[in-house]
Design a protein that fits this description.
Elements lengths: L13 E2 L3 E2 L14 E4 L9 E7 L3 H13 L5 E4 L16 E2 L10 H20 L3 E2 L3 E5 L5 H14 L5 E4 H7 L7 E5 L3 E3 L1 H14 L3 E4 L3 E6 L15 E5 L4 E9 L5 H7 L11 E2 L2 E4 L10 E4 L11 E4 L5 E4 L3 E2 L13 H10 L2 H7 L1 H12 L1 H8 L11 E4 L5 E2 L13
Length: 420
């Protein structure tokens, strides 16, 4: 039996209690039929692989790339339910390259964020992918925020974040001429990038190394085969059967699941524990009008409140030149619900019955009400933004929905870490 693979980026385990589970995918225009994008010189047939990765987002593609570069003799395939790659969370996020300042020192999150920032810059330089190391200011606008800001600065130093400094009002003005604040953390290592471009580059590396990508393959079932396929020379070499919603199947020895917003359901299909459960939250952004972009040069963030699992409303420059303002955090009624009225009865029932949402609501009731108020009234969000840049007015911003992820990943025992 092949040694078990550790799960990468998502819940995974043993399919039907016997093998680890998961598989991912790639991008191409397609009709309704599952489509193989690239087969890449493998001995295995197009329907059988040594390893299958479920999910063609940046985590699945990074996992596929890493596996095939480390184990070039293995046949590896990626399954994606959409016709294109990186459609959901990878293509619906703020595009920030975080430096690792927020996480608990010595934690895996802190280590991976610091190392990951260095690696993403290195990879982008190697591949010629555009990015901007525009930096970030975490700004205290009230006296009571300064102790929290100083504690965050110490945490960043412990985590090994490069170039951190505490700066006063005069230096804030030098970095961000229109920003007001009493004190700030200057984090020059923070940057921005288009993560879809990074994901597409991962997919290209994977395919050029011989990997296969299958799109329009929405996984419906994962089970252990009871017998070998008819006329198959492989016998039971590929005992895991992965079926899609059209009845097509792929066989493999091992599965890695990187299914994003569906990671709990795919885990359950494989016979694993579905916890932590996914509860989708949508983040709505405003956009600064083009003629007002001069007000913001880099990322401007508030001092986070440790009582809540969000970083707060902030100013985020984008690779296309836009400046995003937000997000709020509103419960979504569909896992991939990017618009306010997107709705899924199954997703709603899962939220109510299977998650810890009720406990979350009671613990953060006032915060939730405030978020809903800001979502309904533009003036409330603008008033908050004016704490940092007083020159911004309601006439300077546009509503911009459905471009941010349904922030997800609530979970077990309500230990929540949500990042924008």
């Amino acid at each position: 039996m092949v040694p078990a693979l550790r799960y990468l980026g998502s819940v995974c385990g043993r399919a039907r209690g016997i093998f680890p589970g998961g598989f991912s995918a790639a991008h191409t225009p397609a009709s309704g039929k599952s489509r193989l994008l690239c087969q890449g010189g493998r001995r295995a047939s197009t329907s059988s692989f040594d390893i299958v990765i479920i999910g063609g987002g940046i985590v699945g593609l990074a996992s596929a790339r890493a596996l095939i570069l480390r184990h070039p003799a293995l046949s590896i395939g990626v399954l994606e339910k959409e016709k294109n790659l990186a459609v959901h969370q990878t293509g619906h996020n703020s595009g920030v390259i975080h430096s690792g300042i927020y996480y608990k020192p010595e934690s895996l999150k802190a280590k991976l964020c610091v190392q990951g920032a260095a690696l993403i810059y290195e990879y982008c330089n190697q591949k010629g992918i555009s990015y901007k190391q525009c930096g970030k200011l975490i700004v205290a606008v009230e006296q009571e925020e300064i102790p929290r800001l100083q504690a965050l600065y110490e945490r960043g130093l412990q985590n090994g974040v490069q170039g951190l400094r505490l700066i006063q009002q005069e230096d804030i003005k030098k970095k961000e001429p229109y920003c007001r604040g009493l004190m700030a953390i200057d984090c020059p290592y923070t940057g921005i990038v288009d993560y879809r471009q990074v994901a597409f580059s991962f997919a290209k590396d994977f395919q050029e190394a011989g990997g296969s990508v299958l799109t329009n393959f929405e996984v419906e079932d994962i089970e252990m085969a009871r017998e070998s396929p008819s006329r198959s020379k492989d016998g039971m070499k590929y005992p895991i059967v992965i079926r899609n919603t059209k009845g097509e199947e792929v066989r493999c020895q091992y599965v890695v699941t990187c299914a994003g917003l569906y990671s709990d359901r795919i885990s359950e299909l494989s016979g694993c524990n579905p916890n932590p459960r996914i509860v989708p939250f949508r983040g709505d952004y405003l956009v600064l009008k083009p003629e007002k972009r001069y007000l913001v040069k880099g990322n401007i963030y508030p001092v986070p409140d440790s009582r809540f699992p969000f970083l707060g409303v902030h100013f985020t420059p984008r690779m296309d030149g836009n400046i995003w303002l937000g997000p709020n955090a509103i419960l979504a009624f569909k896992r991939e619900g990017y618009r306010p009225f997107d709705f899924s009865a199954r997703d709603i029932m899962d939220i109510i019955i299977k998650s810890g949402l009720i406990k979350l609501v009671f613990q953060n009731f006032s915060y939730g009400v405030n978020e809903m108020y800001k979502a309904c009234f533009l003036s409330a969000t603008v008033k908050h933004l004016q704490k940092f840049i007083p020159e911004i007015t309601i006439s300077d911003v546009l509503r911009f929905r459905s471009k941010y992820i349904p922030i997800s990943q609530l979970m077990k025992s309500l230990s929540i870490t949500l990042k924008s």
